[in-house]
Specification:
Elements: H1 16-22, H2 26-40, H3 68-76, H4 91-99, H5 101-108
The structure holds iron/sulfur cluster (2 copies).
Length: 111
């Protein structure tokens, strides 16, 4: 499968929100909205499930729209947080990666 690694290390290619957007899948939009509303506690309906990925232009979903790691990496011109000189000492990415080990693996998997 294609990999679309976000600035934080999430793989947007695996995100149900992006898959629903790409396929214009209303059932998956509804399922994703319900799941993320319950899991993350922010208001989200199926109409809000539209995103083509962290590094793509256009709207994002929920927290991804205001992600401090994304804004910071863009401002620094870093390919992602794993490519940032501050990576090892950055509390912002460190707190996130402590909860999402797969994202750490994606950021640290470099040729
Ligand atoms: S940026 Fe978009 S595609 Fe990537 S994880 Fe966030 S909502 Fe999903
Ligand atoms: S300072 Fe932290 S949040 Fe900003 S780009 Fe570097 S690692 Fe990411």
């Amino acid at each position: 499968m294609e990999r679309l690694i976000a600035y934080c290390g999430l793989d947007c290619a695996e995100c149900p929100g992006r898959i629903a957007t790409v396929n214009n899948d209303e059932a998956l939009r509804a399922k994703t909205a319900a799941a993320w509303k319950a899991a993350f506690g922010f208001p989200l309906g199926p109409e809000g499930v539209n995103c083509l990925g962290c590094k793509a232009d256009g709207v994002k979903i929920g927290h991804c729209g205001e992600c401090g790691m994304r804004l910071c990496a863009v401002a620094r011109g870093a390919e992602d947080c794993g490519a940032c000189p501050e990576y090892a000492d950055c509390a912002k990415i460190g707190e996130f990666l402590a909860q999402v080990p797969d994202a750490r693996a994606n950021l640290e998997r470099r040729a």
